[in-house]
Design brief:
single chain; alpha+beta; BirA Bifunctional Protein, domain 2; SH3 type barrels; five-stranded antiparallel sheet
Amino acid sequence: MALAHAAERLGRFGREMHWFTELSSTNDLAGELAAHGAREGTVVIAESQSAGRGRLGRTWHSPPGAGLYFSVVLRPGTSILQLLTLAAGVAIASAIQAATGLAPVLKWPNDLYIGRRKLAGILAEAGAAPSGISHVVVGVGINLRSASYPPEVAERATSIAGELGREADRGVVLGECLAEFAARYDDLQHGRREVVLRAWRECAAPLLSRAVEWDTHDGTRAGIAEDIDETGALMVRTDEGTMRVVSGEVRWT
């Protein structure tokens, strides 16, 4: 199968994979497996999801044959938790470029775009334990083909096939994603945070220096996105000085 081309680079993600034609959510099943002791690196893959979701509780439309949907189980130390989604974003962007030649732009903190249309998204969810966080599930959804999305999604989504004018091999894309994520996760595990931060800045360069706005409990704030700090927070220059944005939705204007 096409996934075999990356077998030697999969690391912890090559030991246990669960494949499904359809699931409610790969993140949900991966979370259940993690809660019952699944080892780090366990991968759950589905060809479609009936209840896929993105950040902030949004629905991630996952029709059959249209995308690649997978989740991985991680058991990271607390020192690297804040950079997991950035590392995943860098990995998926690099993987898509390696597999297809497309060069997605990263939109803080974890969306991948081609131009003004969304190509892929990442959702990280932590599992709690009495002593802290027991595991983190990182889910990825990539649009491989055009599909019958709801109108509000169709106008802002794109796909690999739509951009290339031809289809990409699902196994090749998956293999590159897992191999790149294995490499970036190892960077974090071995103290090479700057490698991940530098790669993220390179992938996000077209959006940095752009105007952004975001909501806070005091109302909507606006400024110019300048950089990320060593924790992965977005640094925004405002009339009141530089502010750190650590969560929520940032709208690029």
